[in-house]
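Structure first, sequence second, as always.
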């Protein structure tokens, strides 16, 4: 595992820990940000492990779908979860008069933990 991949995985772990703090504080918009970034960093690590580099968030999400979900290397639900998390992050970060619903935010914590765990399993040596 390269240092860059490791750093993305560490960033994913840190973001999940941040999300737990935000869950306890009922900070739903911020929680959506941290759960999305946990998945984003995990996705970036997975792509890098296959020498796939993308610059933008949308390109990372699309590449995950193209190279992992579509060919069946991961369950397609993970691609859907990643896209939904991205959209909720946009709501929480940029929409002043719209907020992430508590139920959606709470669900994101479990989904992000599952997503990051799935990536670890993908990267674990056989």
């Amino acid at each position: 595992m390269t240092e860059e991949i490791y750093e993305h995985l560490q960033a994913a772990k840190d973001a999940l820990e941040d999300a737990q703090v935000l869950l306890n504080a009922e900070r739903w918009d911020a929680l959506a940000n941290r759960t999305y970034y946990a998945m984003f960093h995990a996705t970036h690590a997975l792509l890098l492990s296959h020498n796939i580099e993308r610059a933008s968030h949308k390109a990372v999400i699309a590449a995950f779908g193209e190279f992992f979900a579509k060919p069946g290397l991961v369950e397609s639900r993970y691609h859907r979860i990643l896209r939904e998390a991205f959209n909720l992050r946009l709501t929480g970060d940029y929409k002043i008069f719209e907020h992430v619903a508590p139920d959606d935010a709470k669900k994101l914590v479990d989904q992000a933990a599952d997503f990051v765990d799935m990536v670890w399993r993908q990267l674990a040596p056989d």
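Margin note: The chain has one domain: 3-123.
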